[in-house]
Amino acid sequence: MKELELKYGCNPNQKPSRVFMDEGELPIEVLCGRPGYINLLDALNSWQLVKELRKATGLPAAASFKHVSPAGAAVGVPMSDTLKKIYFVDDVKVPLTPIATAYARARGADRMSSFGDFIALSDTCDEATALLIKREVSDGIIAPDYTQEALQILREKRKGTYCVIKIDKDYKPNPIERKQVFGVTFEQGRNEIDLTGDELFENIPTANKNLPEEAKRDLKIALITLKYTQSNSVCYVKDGQAIGIGAGQQSRIHCTRLAGQKADLWWLRQCPKVMSLPFKADIRRADRDNTIDVYMGDEYEDVLREGTWQQFFTEKPEPLTREEKKAWLAQNTKVSLGSDAFFPFGDNIERAHKSGVEYIAQAGGSVRDDNVIETCDKYGIAMAFTGIRLFHH
After folding, report:
1. CB neighbour list of residue 370: distance below 8 Å, 6 or more residues apart
2. What is the pLDDT of residues 343-373, one digit of tens each?
3. Active-site position among 67, 273, 354, 392
4. Is the entire prediction scored with pTM above 0.70?
5. CATH code of the domain occupying 195-268+329-385
């Protein structure tokens, strides 16, 4: 198939819409549903991400994409019982395979942002993964293959309209890519930079030069995730998964703050007081996620006021106080942080430190590198200058 007609473009008024190949066949096969323009942008970007994560780590990888940026990305590192509970997969009856674990991590890190996502898997989608996907609000999935059991489950999702795409894992695109803006054609070489090797971390200008193997793995996950995230962007990673992604901000400190806030919320969800919230048995998954998010924030009274809390809880919870949040957040450590370009000021490091960052990889090359290094040394952070910029638009 050389061409695929789409329902419409980014918006319903943008017609006609299609994807096509100038030469050769499309590398995708639609097994179910009808993908839209944004669906395919998410699918093709997210597939590249998980394919590179697989190569860099040797582990199955998954990503959850929304509006052409990842809401989550992860590899199949085994989960603790705490993570299984906060990702709401502790009730699954079948054993979680490595690819199912990667998906649970990618989807679970930022459930608010992942609502209505497009999923990418580096490996064959199996029954365990399909069962997890079945109960989430999602637009579609791209993977190199599907087991018969998984395909049957996914074909029944959304009354048979769920988008299921199979991609040729051996497809290699033209090294030159083009796109049009306002009738003008842009052309550039594809960003084929290899982010899989440890040579990325050879230039460590900070006093602390210790980068454990797990930190190197997590920094690679951060950088590869950023390679497919709308710039400016930064990414916090811990234990093989992105825990906070700040995308598309004009100021880098705003990226660092946004991603840091998401990383903090991820950690707060593991606080015993949050994990023991007395939810009503019939609460919908999306309402539960939103309630947790509001409860952990400054506007917690929105879900705890009289006449409202009864909609969500069997009994009124005590608020999570500022002091409790501060004490819990202080326990988060060994977080890795990647940036798609250099940090221009030490304020980014100050903010990263508040979210437990101990390892950083960034391009370097700012006129204020000395200030950034000095701030890292203040907190004993190990930082590598990669010399690589990863802007993505």
Report:
1. none
2. 999 999 999 999 999 999 999 999 999 999 9
3. 67
4. yes
5. 3.40.140.20
